[in-house]
Prior knowledge:
With about 1000 residues, the chain is an alpha/beta fold. Strands 1, 2, 3, 4, 5, 6, 7, 8 and 9 form a nine-stranded mixed beta sheet that branches. It has a seven-stranded mixed beta sheet with strand order 12-13-11-10-14-15-16, sandwiched between helices. A seven-stranded mixed beta sheet has the order 18-17-20-19-21-22-23, with helices on both faces. Strand 24 (about 535-540), helix 15 (about 545-555) and strand 25 form a beta-alpha-beta unit. It is flat, with a radius of gyration of 33 Å.
Amino acid sequence: METPAHPPRPEEPRSAAPRPGGRPQDQHPSAQPHEAGYPAHWEADVVLRDGGTARIRPITADDAERLVSFYEQVSDESKYYRFFAPYPKLSAKDVHRFTHHDFVDRVGLAATIGGEFIATVRFDRVDATGRPASAPADEAEVAFLVQDAYQGRGVASALLEHIAAVARERGIRRFGAEVLPHNTKMIKVFTDAGYQQKRSFEDGVVHLTFPLEPTERSLAVQYAREHRAESRSVQRLLAPGSVAVVGAKRAGGGVGRSILRNLLAAGYTGRLSAVNSSFPEDQGTLDGVPAFRTVKEIGEDIDLAVVVVPAERVPEAVAECGEHGVRGLVVISAGYGESVTAGRARQRRLVRQARSYGMRLVGPNAFGLVNTDPAVRLNASLAPELAPRGRVGLFTQSGAIGIALLSELHQRGTGLSTFVSAGNRADVSGNDVLQYWYDDPDTDVALMYLESIGNPRKFTRLARRAAATKPLVVVQGARHSAATPPSHAVAETRLPHATVSALLAQAGVIRVETVTDLVDTGVLLAGQPLPEGPRVAILGNSESLGLLTYDACLTEGLRPRTPLDLTTSASPEDFRRALEQALADRDSDAVVVTAIPWVGEGALDWPEGEVLGAALREAVAASETRKPVLVVHVELGGLAHALSAATATLPASAGPHTPGGAVRADARDTEVVRDEGEPRAAVREPVAAVREPGATVRDEGGTPAPEPGESVAGERPATPRIPAYPAPERAVRALARAVRHAQWRTDTEHPGRVPEFEDIDGHGAADRIAGLLGALPPGARGTTPGPEDTEDLLRRYGIPVLRALPAPDADAAARAAEELGYPVALKITAPHLRHRPDLGGVRLDLADESDLRRAYADLTALLGSPAELRPVVQSMAPRGVDTVVRAVIDPAAGAVLSFGLAGAPSELLGDTAHRLVPVTDRDAADQVRSLRSAPLLFGWRGAAPVDTDALQELIQRVSRLVDDHPEIVAVSLEPVVVAPRTVRVLGASLRLAHPPAVGDEGPRRMPMY
């Protein structure tokens, strides 16, 4: 699959980048001499279409031998497509030309695996006649060469993304390529990239030209490819056809031996191998599994290797796996990033080594992987038993938290589809697993415990897409940057935790505070439909428990109905009838059932929990409505267990599954999930307790049979689970989160639009910004424009700033007031005194010169000299509510726009709303109304409502300004006075800098720590 620009030209390079000495294959670019101009930031690891990885890096003079070796492995057909003629070998001049680049007008990139080239791409800048050129020429010819064995794996597509980004950085705006008509694969690479193309056919050659500016379609194509590749890479880890445990000990226990036995006990359906260099040569098996001294002795393909050896021996094990063609690794071994400096360096080397062989890596210091699919039954983890089959996906960055969550979910009767505990998550992260879950038909709800988010912008993008179909519940540990685990070598965001949380909520993430909340919310979403509204019916046999539930609903912003007290003498039949009526009532959207032990004659004559459970099950089965039902019970032994007895299944295609992914209740049986108060004896016995190691129970067709209570692949339980809680507050918190998530889904169906303002002067603003940045001295990181430049830039986007004139003395103040016209305001602008109304540094409604001079004298006598205070005179604005609008560019999250009321609400109480840029009209309206102090804008206590429409327009104009000009890295409008009929900006400041690299922009790349 090739395309040339033209056959290689005979001219010598105009400039080259030779470097003294050599660079070991795929050595980190820090080894590159600075004076050579090696563009280290162009290096990137990428995930290919099949889930493997490759490294993309610039080609240098040290790559001559690699280039020759690579070319020798390319077929004659591919060479013909590249050069339009037979070209069996490269000449010395060819090799020199293709390995010597100036990284400005001539650039070559290579994709490598194992340090060897698998594909190359290059561009040459040309003028209008097609001859070599330098800037300002803005067109280049591009050519690819992909080794035949790697064609069809998305290598050329990844290289095109990266070479296009390099070209844009070097001022190139268009690519041209000439392709033979029969080279359909290469034509497809260009066609599918999403760029606008022009195509012509002349002299038997297809000539393609296309601009390199990203388009909405090209970004969509890029994200879709990223999704497919990353999803596939995780799928290869979770559904391997063969697993090797490297480090399983012959004698005694040990972690490796435990994992081997866990795989056997789970009934893993693929091939197992045990590897340990200390095995004697005659060691044939270990626990019935073929045993080998090295990976290369296995003689068959290995999809997944679980590495459990001391940290100092891991590189040797990884090298063996890479050379054998192993597809993925789970490194259980510790001694990496968690051990600070030396360990973090070892961790970086581990990641680079694994990726150099095209392998994805879970860990190090990982707890392992679990996949309950009956076709796989993978328990490559330290968990002693395979989790029950279910439809919840679980990801954690902590082994200890993973153990706790597995136990808690098991006790409450909620099964898993997959579980990934990534440890230090040096490679595979929550983003990768989200990509997989989005496609996984066996996962309906995603639960995540995160201690760090390395790429918040990408995470929110993926979360928004996933949450639209599958609820995503997240609990964050280490919420403050100072507490981020040292093993998580991520680029930390500078945004406060509250801001990150607000952005996650905007993306549809259900963020909870504790691990208990994570489970409480997860078991509800896994078994119940989303409520259609906030109205809650409450019924039960305890008036006090009903009132506590009622109060909890009000606290969470729900709309509870008056609790129905069935009295303590209520029978299970009374519960059944009351629940049937509540489910049929159109004035409620959810039902909370409260229950305490039955009181009355004959109370011990029947197992109350089991009978009540059967009654509630019957009521839900008879209902034709789809409402969530939750149970709050106190000391009712056996209730939750009795209500989780049904195990029938339905095919996925016919099951009661809502478009949003949550199982919905209909006229079928219902299960109630066990809470943590139930005895352990109520839980299904672990697989390992009833099977011999390696034994797998199979049905008549040879398929592994599901455990009791499990569903088979592709099926969902026909008995949606009703979650049970030991306290009303926990049940209501979970229900409130489900209500808010349902409302978020409704809102996202109509996301709003980013308005087009006809009065914006974007080109003029860009020229002004370029002039200000161009005037910076060498080495300057940015600039804060003066008032005149700031006001000019804002005015070009329809954001006028109320004029203020300096007043260095009383006479100057009088002249300024005369120019502006009375009445005026006198205020101090010294940085350490601004926005301090408690100091009395602002005097308003000064009607004439005598008022002004008197106020000037008072201020300087009270607070200091004019030189210190920097007073200004400003026209009076209409009275209203003082607010603050700010925007900041965060390297990890991107552009974030914030809004709040000035003073104590935002500064003391943190009452600030945040949105990612660009802000739609709906985002702006929601942002204004989401403040706790928002009633002050809408006529609180009889005050006149202010002009929120004008305020929302101002927010959108600031969003457009920042979105159009990434060089504006900070904006602050304070105060913004919102009056009943207008908005006035009284103070403004900007910060300009060359735009930072934002984590989710540019070509696809894996994080490099």
